[in-house]
Write a structure and sequence with these properties.
This protein has helices spanning 5-32, 37-46, 75-89, 107-116, 149-169, 190-206, 233-243, 262-271, 297-314, 334-353, 357-365, 369-380, 385-394, 401-407, 410-418, and strands at 50-52, 60-61, 64-65, 94-96, 120-121, 124-125, 173-177, 181-182, 213-217, 227-228, 247-252, 275-280, 322-325. It is of the alpha/beta class and 427 residues long. The radius of gyration is 22 Å and the shape is globular. The structure holds alpha-D-psicofuranose and manganese (II) ion. The site of alpha-D-psicofuranose has 10 residues, from loops. Alpha-D-psicofuranose is lined by residues 54, 125, 177, 217, 219, 252, 279, 287, 326, 427. GO terms for molecular function: isomerase activity.
Length: 427
């Protein structure tokens, strides 16, 4: 299924007058504060969020999975789904593949399909947290950190194979997340596990093409419940520093212990020039993989305040970082959920762009705590949705992506095409 431009235009025509009123009002409001709305809109248009190939179907938990209808049955259909998202919001212009869930068997055709929908390929992800059919050695007790050199070699080779797949598609990064760790005290040696992992990562690093990067993702716990080899940003950074300049830290918002100050982690990583990018999601308890901004929007805003600061300090544009969603949709339509996540990301980014940095610095320099808080909250409490809608409209997308998705009956059309009982690959 494809959404045609005329459908988007018709939808926008219907909403234009009300949207324009809101946009003009916001523009005036910001103008009074010396902020150019057009510049914020331009920055929003440039901000692209990659969609994970593993999040286009219904998610599940260990208690079950309630598949929705019309889920993509192949890589091609997944790319088509991302094409639908991008047509609607013009902010989801790339897809991140997880191997072997999504092996590009015919790379040329895959690239052709993607580029016909305006999509490129983001980081490729390796998977050594599950055993695959016909796999020689098991990852039950680890992969890159395993005590058996044979298992480590198998996991290294898998990562190198993933790089090869990525090269064929024009990806420029390998994303590594290890579930390696232990479930019980005494089960493994922390030091040996670290050293084996480092050696394995060094072999993978050596196989990276010149213009590639490796993203090292950390996670506090799960599926191992006592220790995880790369459990926090500090260990991830340590691996990256030991590996070299092509290795950077990937922050997944759900991978911290409760109440971690993620914005401070982000500031530190950016100060060191070692932030690769993000896996966006939201959570209340653990790695809940909920819709971005659905639980802690203020935290997301504070993270974006640091991101904007860091990008300005480093003089780097938003396109030089890897922005990805890593979410699961247990009860929502996956595509609607992804549209909501992308919108939430853009809203937080827009709010962060409104922060009066000069005034904030001034307030900090005289320890005016009240004013500093007020400056941040003024930005956070501004309704920036008209700016996000304007960015999508100017880029050729819909003013209300979820509204149009429902209006044209995307899901029922996909169910007609693909059937009501389909299960996409992923977790
Ligand atoms: C692990 O929880 C993770 O965040 C990693 O990014 C994996 O690649 C992905 O989820 C798998 O769903
Ligand atoms: Mn992740």
């Amino acid at each position: 299924m494809k959404i045609e431009q005329y459908q988007i235009d018709q939808h926008n025509d219907g909403l234009l007058s009300s949207h324009n009123n809101q946009y003009v009002y916001t523009k005036e409001l910001l103008g009074e504060q010396g902020i150019y709305a057009d510049e914020v809109v331009k920055a929003l248009q440039d901000f692209q969020v990659a969609i994970p190939s593993w999040a286009l179907g219904t998610g599940g938990t260990r208690f079950g999975r309630f598949s929705g209808g019309g889920e993509p049955r192949s890589l091609e259909e997944k790319i088509e789904d991302v094409g639908l998202l991008h047509a609607l919001n013009r902010s989801s212009g790339s897809i991140s593949l997880h191997i072997p869930w999504d092996i590009p068997e015919q790379p040329k055709e895959t690239i052709q399909l993607a580029s016909s929908l305006g999509l490129t390929f983001d980081a490729v992800n390796s998977n050594t947290f599950q055993d695959q059919k016909n796999q020689e050695l098991s990852y039950k007790f680890g992969s890159l950190s395993h005590v058996d050199a044979g298992v480590r070699k198998q996991a290294v080779n898998h990562n190198i194979e993933v790089i090869k797949y990525g090269e064929q598609l024009g990806s420029k990064a390998l994303s590594v997340w290890l579930s390696d760790g232990s479930c019980f005290p005494g089960q493994s040696s922390f030091v040996k596990a670290f050293q084996y992992t480092l050696e394995s990562l060094q072999e993978i690093y050596a196989a990276l093409p010149d213009d590639w990067k490796v993203y090292v993702e950390y996670k506090a716990y799960e599926p191992n419940f006592y220790s995880t080899v790369i459990q926090d940003w500090g260990s991830s950074l340590l691996f990256c520093q030991k590996l070299g300049p092509k290795a950077d830290v990937l922050v997944d918002l759900g991978h911290h212990l409760p109440n971690a100050n993620i914005e401070q982690i982000v500031a530190t990583l950016m100060m060191e020039g070692r932030l690769a990018g993000f896996h966006f999601n939201d959570s209340k308890y653990g790695d809940d993989d909920l819709t971005v901004g659905s639980i802690r929007p203020y935290m997301l805003f504070l993270i974006f305040v640091e991101l904007v600061d860091g990008m300005r300090r480093a003089n780097r544009g938003s396109s030089s970082y890897a922005w990805m969603i890593d979410a699961s949709h247990n009860v929502k339509d996956p595509l609607e959920d992804l549209l909501q996540s992308v919108e939430a990301i853009l809203i937080s980014y827009a709010e962060a762009l409104l922060v009066d940095r000069k005034k904030l610095e001034q307030a900090r320099s005289v320890n005016d705590v009240v004013l500093a808080q007020q400056i941040l909250q003024n930005a956070f409490r501004t309704d920036v949705r008209p700016l996000v809608r304007e960015a999508m409209r100017q880029s050729g997308g819909a003013i209300d992506p979820v509204g149009l998705f429902r209006q044209v009956g995307v899901r029922s059309e996909l169910m007609n095409e693909r059937g009501k009982i389909t299960v996409a690959t992923g977790l």
